[in-house]
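*** Fold description ***
***
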Amino acid sequence: MRKAFSDSLMKEAENNPQVTFMTGDLGFQVFDEFSEKFGARYINVGVAEAQLINVAAGMAAEGWRPVAYSIASFATARPFEQIRYCVSYPNLPVTLVGAGRGFTYSTSGVSHHALDDIGLMSLLPNMTVVIPGDPTEIEELFPQVMRCSGPAYFTVGRFGEPRYQAEEPSVLGKARLLKSGQKIAIMSTGEITHEVLKSVNLLHSENIIPMVYQMHTIKPLDTVTLDNLADQVRAMLVVEEHFPNGGLWAAVTQWNAIRDKPIRLQRVGPPDSFILGNLNREDVRKKIGCDAHSIAITCRLLWNQ
């Protein structure tokens, strides 16, 4: 996904001379081509995330189109006050890019876990929140995000994530149908979608065929698709790599709470607690019940009820 993002950024910079890239001392080698080709439009502020946001906001106010990049936990939580007052409040077109959200950097401990980034960014007025799940969604959504008139939060994974098949293209603000099915709709966001698709493959041999939607846009949430789905299925399963508060689950439950006929909802995701230790992402997901087998178990229970 990171290579897809770098390539997409290059295309945007070639088409728009106002596009600048800013980093908090990260992304070496990944963005070398950008630095070599665009020179002064590449800015490294060092390990100073608050200043990263301040500089990006100042440049946006002067007509530039800045892209500010850091590890997801550092891009959102550490400079939250600067994002709130310098970017969100004046509604400036700054694109914040969080690399490696969720448990991507799980071996580095809680400081690098990004399980609250969606909640933090979704709280802010004017902010668009986009969480792609594969390289194709990076390539299709980043150009759309760069045409937003206000601020946006956009995430990228690491290297080597496979592309998944889908029945629809990626459209900003619209849930993306990955697999058709019946009785149950699985809603996920970000790279955890790969675990969802693995779980569906496990279930097909049992003739359990849920729908799968990738909710790459958390804000604004595609309530039109959710309303349509609620009339077609008996339950929805939300799978996320985020704390229970503020993420996709929170957004979907808020939508469901004001419906005349609420639909049954179930969640698979991290608990409301810090995950200690230095396990890799795959082992963390197994430990807390967010891997493909755990998702399949929950789907099986919903299907048979």
Notes: The radius of gyration is 19 Å. Residues 10 and 229 are 37 Å apart (CA to CA). The domain at 176-304 is CATH 3.40.50.920 (Rossmann fold).
